[in-house]
Amino acid sequence: MKKLMIINGPNLNLLGTRETEIYGSLSFTEFLEEIKNKYKEVSIDYFQSNIEGELIDKLQEVGFTYDGIILNAAAYTHTSVGLGDAVKAIDTPVIEVHISNTFSREEFRHQSYISPNAKGIIIGFGLQSYELALESFL
Ligand code: DQA
To answer: Known catalytic residue: 110?
Structure first.
């Protein structure tokens, strides 16, 4: 059975209530239940943190044994050299995802420290971005 890990960065714990016109009204817990039911043939683990170092620790922890990582580093995408380096340092392929189309938003969201080290990037499909990334690992 393939082992996948979804890692969410800062403020994504508020999905479902946060800026719903951009991010939708489904909580991540509800969405996770849906995809776990739909993709029973894979093991899907989930980690969320608002703390940059904890996200780096998690990437290092799972990045040599898991088959794939789906990473939405949220605001740290645009600021964190450390997270970009962590993605580069591990063996497990990482797919960068974003719920919103970051390129149709403010200029500072056009920069990503994750992208150059990611296997691929899926941006702007709402929560479906995670599902498309998951499909690519199957
Ligand atoms: C986001 C886009 C980021 O720019 C933003 O800081 C987020 C969420 C997204 O999934 O659309 O928190 O990563």
So the answer is: no
Which CATH number belongs to the domain containing residue 7 in this structure? 3.40.50.9100
Q: Please state the pTM of the whole predicted model.
A: 0.97
pLDDT tens-place string over residues 25-51 = 888 999 999 999 999 999 999 999 999
Q: Which residues contact 99 (CB under 8 A, 6 or more apart)?
A: 15, 22, 23, 24, 72, 124, 125, 126, 127, 129
Tokens 């899926």 belong to residue: 122
Residue range 89-103: mean pLDDT, rounded: 98
Centroid of ligand 1 to alpha carbon of 61 (angstroms): 24
Q: How many domains does the chain have?
A: 1
